[in-house]
Amino acid sequence: MMTYTQLVESFPKISSISLGSWNTFSRLKFEDGMALVRQALDLGINFFDVGYYWDKPHTEIIFGRILQVLAPPRDGYVLAEKLWLWDYPAQSFKSQLQQALIRLAVDYVDLVMVSRPTPETDFNSFCEEIVTLVDLGLTRGWGATNWEPEQIRRAQVYLGERGKAQPLLVQLQYNLARRTIVEGAEFSRLFAETGIRLCAAHTMEGGILAGHLNRDRVDPSAAAMGKVPVDRNIARDAGGVRDRIRANYPILKETASRFKATPAQIAIAAVLANKATATALIGVTRASNLEEDIGAIKLLDRGEELLAAIAPLAIDSVAHPRLFDPIKNE
User: Fold this and answer.
1) Is the N or the C terminus of the chain less surrounded, counting Cβ atoms within 10 Å?
2) Cross-strand partners of 201
């Protein structure tokens, strides 16, 4: 039986900055998308997070074709695929993943990132269904998207007792404004006691922390009525704090100036400064942005100073995002 530590050690090391796919590759000319992925690989970024998105359903096809053309060595990148609860359990995780593999044109992914189970879900069966994907060779491991700490612990105990694959990552919304959940007592203990690592999503609040202040959410029903997002669509505003984040942007901009950095670099470095963070997920479409974001790593030499400087930007009333169902628009 492989221990949890052995499982972690056997898994490929992932880059501290990773590339997301929602509203990125679908908005690019194919050649520009290829250049972006090639540049990411050249810069040492090896972790790519993809999924079937309600408003960009061809993302996996585009990204899979990019991989086909570039043909990087399969051990040269780590591919994560989202699994949703939209049609679950009518559509099983196995069916979801098999369809995703067809769209991506790959035989397996390295991780599936699974949305948290609902209260009425048979939790043990839910976990068994996930690890079956590992047993079948469709994925090498799995992670949890927006799970609660007690759910992760429960899965670790149940699966650990059975010698089954336990979650390697938990993906949570985390940025310099949305710190209180990830850095709160429950998640802090979870990271310290179990060794599970954080995949930080929403690191720049959909670009707002990089200065794109007018971006916001367009829900499925509004999109169906013809509403178009400003520049690009972004995640829901969990806790209703986005206006306060916008209002604090001048402080962030001034802080960045003092560190001779950009606001985006400050935002990324703030996330990477947390020792629980395995990787910070970013969404970029320009080569210049990717190079800028990589520059955040140099700020970690001033980590304590940086965290003290951004402390006033943290908002206490942030919330864990609710489960999302684009079919019901809720």
Assistant:
1) N
2) 173
Residues 235-268 have pLDDT tens digits of 999 999 999 999 999 999 999 999 999 999 999 9
Say how many C-beta atoms besides its own lie within 10 A of residue 275's C-beta.
10
In which residue are the tokens 């003092």 written?
258
In-domain check, residue 253:
yes
The pTM for the full model equals 0.93
Q: Which residues of 58-87 are buried (b: 16+ CB within 10 A; e: fewer)?
A: ebbbbbbbbbeeeeeeeeebbbbbbbbbbe
Please list the alpha-helical segments (H only) found in the chain. 4-10, 30-42, 59-70, 93-104, 123-135, 149-161, 185-194, 220-224, 242-247, 249-258, 263-272, 287-294, 303-310
Question: How does strand 197-201 pair with strand 109-115?
Answer: unpaired
Q: How far apart are CA 290 and CA 41, in angstroms?
A: 11
**What letter would DSSP give residue 71?**
-
* 229 falls within a domain: no
**Total domains in the fold of the chain:** 1
Write down the pLDDT at residue 316: 86
The CA-atom distances, in angstroms, between 211 and each of 250, 252, 262, 281 are 9, 10, 10, 18
Per the structure block, which two tokens stand in for 104? 């991506």
**Domain range for 58:** 4-215+242-310
Which residues face 48 on adjacent strands?
A: 19, 79
pLDDT tens string 61-103: 999 999 999 999 999 999 999 999 999 999 999 999 999 999 9
Who has greater pLDDT, 156 or 324?
156
Q: Which two tokens stand for residue 202?
A: 């929403």
> How confident is the model over 100-121, as pLDDT tens digits?
999 999 999 999 999 999 999 9
> Torsions phi, psi of 201, nearest 5?
-110, 165
Task: Report yes or no on 134 lying in a domain.
Answer: yes
Q: Which two tokens stand for residue 312?
A: 């006033």
